[in-house]
């Protein structure tokens, strides 16, 4: 059962947190440029990352619905694409954005029962992210946290107690490196498994930090290339409902696919987007958006692959 412990090479699991304007997105892209030759970015920040596309080369997937399953689908697609670095900008929306975990709980009555359904979905998102076969950098927002304090006379006052990360409590323990950015673009390493980084501060972090990270990640035995296995969906039907296509998107696709439904569905089965026997209406919102961005390309590709 037991065997000698051996250090193996690792893939980075890093979180960058901070208030708005701290440089989280730019820093993630800058570090990614040193960590690998290809970068995929999941964008929940209204295309803000594309401001930096003239300086850094990366592919982007836009999310405007933050159901955890949409994140999972995008992570799977990045893994299929073989991207060496994945940036999730930001993970906070999966917690408190539209159809994020808190929103799903609210829609199901804020009960203990509701959390029993939503927590496994949140866990699956984290498992999928941490199981990614390349480096992962996530950004998360922070907000001012407060506490109520009572003095000797019983008077209650509200006091600031620092910044709280907008995600589930304990999220910081999921990462190898957890760095916070201030408004002057300085990063302080709050928590880390890399001893040389503990407590360090980096002004406008970039190449120096990336080299330290790579030196630590690669101080072990090479590991066999990771094979990314997509988790099987095990969602409650009512949670899946908010993951379905909305009516406007469904109508646009219906017009696009008219007379070509059989070919389209066979092509989607070939690509692993739906199961054999399912209709195209079963695709994820993320995949639907990608089709509508380049409808002619999608149709021509489908027609050429399905005989």
Low-pLDDT segments, ≥5 res: none
Largest sheet, in brief, is:
9 strands, mixed
Helical residue percent band = 25-40%
Name of the CATH class of the largest domain:
Alpha Beta
**What is the total domain count?**
2
Distance between the first and last residues' Cα: 52 Å
Per CATH, the architecture of the largest domain is: 3-Layer(aba) Sandwich
Question: Could you characterize what this model shows?
Answer:
- There is one protein chain.
- This protein is α/β, with parallel strands linked by helices and 307 residues long.
- It folds into 2 domains: 13-217, 3-Layer(aba) Sandwich (Rossmann fold), CATH 3.40.50; 244-305, no CATH class.
- The protein contains 11 helices and 9 strands.
- Strands 1, 2, 3, 4, 5, 6, 7, 8 and 9 form a 9-stranded mixed sheet that branches.
- Strand 5 and strand 6 (156-165) form a beta hairpin.
- The mean pLDDT is 85.
In short:
The chain is of the alpha/beta class.
List keywords for this structure.
single chain; 307 residues; alpha/beta; Rossmann fold; 2 domains; nine-stranded mixed β-sheet; 9 strands
How is the topology of this model organized?
Elements: E1 13-18, H1 24-35, E2 39-43, E3 59-62, H2 68-80, E4 85-89, H3 93-96, H4 101-107, H5 112-130, E5 135-150, E6 156-165, E7 177-181, E8 186-192, E9 201-203, H6 207-217, H7 237-241, H8 247-257, H9 261-270, H10 285-293, H11 295-305
Parallel strand pairs: 1-5, 1-7, 2-3, 2-4, 4-5
Antiparallel strand pairs: 5-6, 7-8, 8-9
